[in-house]
Specification:
The protein has 160 residues and is mainly alpha-helical. Helices cover 56% and strands 0% of the residues.
Length: 160
């Protein structure tokens, strides 16, 4: 792929992951959430916003680690990807989780934007996955769970 096409694709992937394009961004979905609502589980739903935030953090970190290290060790599905329900989440735990999501997202984007990496080349320790697939996986997965956060906020009557 010629350099200008690869640069264009990298920019589109970055925008898809960070800006949401046609979707609410993750940052917008969690902004201004009252602390008491972080752990509330609406009737007939299996998890809270906190559990979704932690799931996004864990899954994104897993994708980053898989994409960047041949020493990657797979997590057990679903147990390692979901945290149990809790009654309270401190402001510091909340902010730390959000900061880690941003940091890991930025680290992943640095992989994607590094022109030494062929977005289409199979990750040597994988089963045919490549950086392009992993970027689309992060975008898709995070958008799905971001929408769930918005729905829960609507059910809790704390959305715009």
């Amino acid at each position: 792929m010629e350099t200008s096409q690869q640069s264009s694709l990298m920019k589109e992937l970055e925008d898809l992951i960070t800006k949401g394009n046609a979707h609410v961004t993750f940052e917008d979905a969690v902004a201004g959430l009252p602390p008491a609502m972080r752990t509330m589980v609406p009737e007939n739903l299996p998890y809270s916003i906190w559990q979704l935030v932690e799931h996004v953090r864990i899954a994104q970190k897993d994708i980053l680690e898989f994409s960047s290290s041949e020493d990657y060790e797979a997590l057990d599905w679903p147990d390692d990807y979901w945290t149990p329900a809790v009654e309270n989440v401190s402001d510091s735990a909340w902010e730390q989780s959000l900061a880690e999501i941003r940091s890991d997202r930025n680290r992943f984007l640095e992989l994607v934007k590094n022109e030494k990496h062929d977005l289409y080349a199979a990750i040597p320790w994988g089963n045919g996955q490549n950086l392009l697939r992993e970027a689309m996986l992060i975008a898709d997965h995070n958008a799905y769970h971001t929408a769930e956060i918005v729905v829960i906020r609507r059910l809790l009557k704390c959305w715009k």
